[in-house]
Design a protein that fits this description.
The complex is a heterodimer of chains A (250) and B (310).
Chain A: E1 2-6, E2 9-11, E3 33-35, H1 37-51, E4 57-64, H2 68-78, E5 82-87, H3 94-108, E6 112-116, H4 127-135, E7 138-149, E8 153-160, E9 163-170, E10 173-177, H5 189-195, E11 200-203, E12 216-222, E13 231-232, H6 236-246
Parallel strand pairs in A: 1-4, 1-6, 4-5, 5-11, 6-10, 7-10
Antiparallel strand pairs in A: 2-3, 7-8, 8-9
Helix pairs in contact in A: 2-5, 3-4
Chain B: E1 2-6, H1 17-28, E2 31-38, H2 42-48, E3 54-61, H3 70-81, E4 86-90, H4 93-106, E5 110-114, E6 116-119, E7 122-127, E8 132-138, E9 143-147, E10 164-166, E11 176-183, E12 196-200, H5 207-221, E13 224-227, H6 229-233, E14 254-258, H7 264-270, E15 275-280, E16 293-296, H8 299-309
Parallel strand pairs in B: 1-2, 1-4, 2-3, 3-10, 4-9, 5-9, 12-13, 12-14, 14-15, 15-16
Antiparallel strand pairs in B: 6-7, 7-8
The chains are: A alpha/beta (250), B alpha/beta (310).
């Protein structure tokens, strides 16, 4: 079975995002970019399925500017067999990414799409579900455990509010990865060198017949309301007094 | 304008977050219809008739809708949505699961996790773990919006009973089936609706100390228990305790952060709390920059003393 793993290039999670001075977007110039951490988890899940003999090939995909090649090289160094970049200059909304992926699924015919549950830049948490809808496939979001079964089905345990839920889904399907699915490996130096020779194809949205024009107009980007830090109290007695008599919350 | 609010429920009662989503719907304006879709959920539909501002309750009752699966629910909502200008639901594990699927079936963008209604077609939402807020205007014929419940004050009280209208369900897609559910058994209040939240981080050091130190404090305060991602990753508590960018967003009256340094990703989930208390041995910890009251010191000594003093 072939696996398709979409990966997004995002501002590194250790960097605090700031609005551009004119409010037209988020400042990204010169800042470190990395693979979306949830996509790393999805990639790790794919690699483990291949190592277990349950998958034959891993194709990593990214939609975005040419710089995304770097993220795809990381995916190749981790264990993807080949990569496809769909070159898009502007920000692409989740619905458009889902349509690009839908077209790639038609070409590649994977048995499973594995992706992160959300990207840590726009925090939208939409693309996997939208792709499953467009394909008419089953979906299992927020996965913490994946077990492929021989009969064209998979058991997926999902993180839900208050606990866990286990679904039996028909394959092909889209599964989105949550934090506890696994702990991703690091790419080794020999694998980073080998990744440079693995195939990386480039396509344009027009090659896939997809219109990526945005549906939403970004009106402005702003700082959230600031919260002021308060005071350091000397001891427990002072804290209890403040909570009782000043904040009146206990 | 006419809005469809999709209720989250367990076939017995609707979630408290529904009143918050209705507040967002009221901010948009227009006729508010409520969809209660489930199996054996008549009690929910009947109870929902009294929710203030609801003009009509649409009730779809079918075994195929019983487990809240995204495939069947998204298809039903996408069929009904064409009669509305807006579809709203909570940005919970439930809403996040099916809403984007319905949006794609409708060929519209979804606006996730809104914290403010700027205009009927314009909404503000946090991005980058809440470091930045972005305001978007939608030109789509149906605006599909998920709502951050803590950002909107719940609609209070009851109204005159709204009419109940049965909606027929669609055939089961057969794509997925719920095999089992394991809910954490707890007598504590739910994290997202608790008045007080006691939350622990890596500073607790172990699952045993998390339990031994924080449970008595939470018992005293009748508080829900939460945790940072670091504490979850370290295996101290299950994932659904997690407060932050990738976990739950809470805004209680009182949030007590114990042994939590205050990464951006954690602050994203709790900085709208009314009063924040931080207990940490590192006076430079970023958590103190958002805390109303900070106590610097050894949590192993401070927490039991605080529990005794309450």
């Amino acid at each position: 079975m072939k696996l398709l793993v979409p990966v997004k290039r995002v501002l590194d999670y250790n960097i605090k995002a700031r609005p551009k001075a004119d409010g037209s977007g988020v400042e990204l110039a010169g800042l470190k970019m990395s693979m979306n951490p949830f996509d790393e988890i999805a990639m790790e899940a794919a690699i483990r399925l291949k190592e277990a003999g349950q998958a034959t090939e891993i194709v990593a995909v990214s939609c975005g500017p040419a710089g995304n090649q770097e993220t795809l090289r990381t995916a190749l160094a981790l264990g993807a067999d080949r990569a496809i970049l769909v070159t898009c200059e502007a920000d692409v909304e989740p619905l458009a990414v889902a349509k690009l992926l839908q077209a790639l699924v038609a070409r590649e015919q994977p048995g499973l799409v594995l992706c992160g549950k959300q990207a840590i830049d726009d925090d939208a948490n939409q693309t996997g579900q939208m792709l499953a809808a467009l394909l008419g496939w089953a979906q299992a979001t927020f996965a913490s455990r994946i077990e492929l079964q021989g009969d064209g089905a998979a058991l997926v345990t999902r993180e839900i509010d208050g606990g866990l839920e286990t679904l039996s889904i028909r394959l092909p399907a889209v599964i989105t990865a949550d934090l506890r699915l696994n702990e991703p490996r690091y790419a080794t130096l020999p694998n980073i060198m080998k990744a440079k020779k693995k195939p990386l194809d480039t396509l344009a949205p027009a090659d896939l017949g997809v219109d990526t024009a945005p549906r939403l107009a970004l009106v402005q980007v702003s700082e959230p309301p600031e919260r002021q830090g308060g005071l350091i109290v000397p001891d427990v007695a002072a804290l209890v007094d403040k909570l009782k008599n000043e904040a009146k919350v206990i | 304008m006419s809005l469809l609010v999709v209720a989250e429920h367990d076939n017995h009662t609707f979630k408290a977050s529904l009143r918050h989503v209705l507040a967002a719907a009221r901010d948009i304006g227009g006729d508010i219809h409520l969809l209660v879709a489930g199996s054996g959920c008549e009690a929910v539909a009947q109870a929902a008739r009294a929710l203030p501002g609801v003009a009509c309750v649409r009730w779809a009752d079918d075994p195929a809708l019983g487990d809240g699966g995204a495939e069947n629910l998204a298809l039903l909502v996408s069929r009904l949505a064409r009669d509305y200008t807006h579809v709203l639901t909570a940005a919970s594990a439930f809403g996040k699961n099916w809403a984007p699927r319905a949006a794609a079936l409708l060929d519209v963008a979804q606006i996730s996790d809104i914290v403010r209604v700027d205009a009927p077609d314009t909404f503000t939402r946090p991005i980058y773990a809440g470091s930045v807020w972005a305001t978007y205007r939608s030109a789509d014929p149906v605006k599909l919006v998920t709502v951050r419940p803590t950002a909107f004050e719940a609609v209070a009280g009851d109204g005159a009973p709204a009419p109940l209208e049965a909606v027929s369900a669609l055939p089961d897609s057969g794509l997925s089936r719920r095999m089992s559910v394991a809910l954490n058994q707890s007598t504590r209040p739910e994290l997202e609706s608790a008045r007080v939240v006691v939350s622990g981080g890596r500073g607790l050091g172990s699952a045993e100390r998390f339990k031994a130190l924080l449970e008595p404090l939470a018992d005293k305060l009748q508080a829900a228990l939460g945790a940072s991602r670091a504490a979850v990753d370290s295996g101290y508590v299950p994932n659904d305790y997690q407060v932050g960018q990738t976990g739950k967003v809470v805004a209680p009256d009182l949030y007590i952060a114990v042994g939590i340094s205050g990464a951006i990703q954690h602050l994203a989930g709790m900085k709208a709390s009314r009063v924040i208390v931080a207990i940490n041995k590192d006076p430079e910890a970023p958590i103190f920059s958002v805390a109303d009251y900070g106590l610097v010191g050894d949590l192993n000594e401070i927490v039991p003393r605080l529990t005794d003093a309450l």
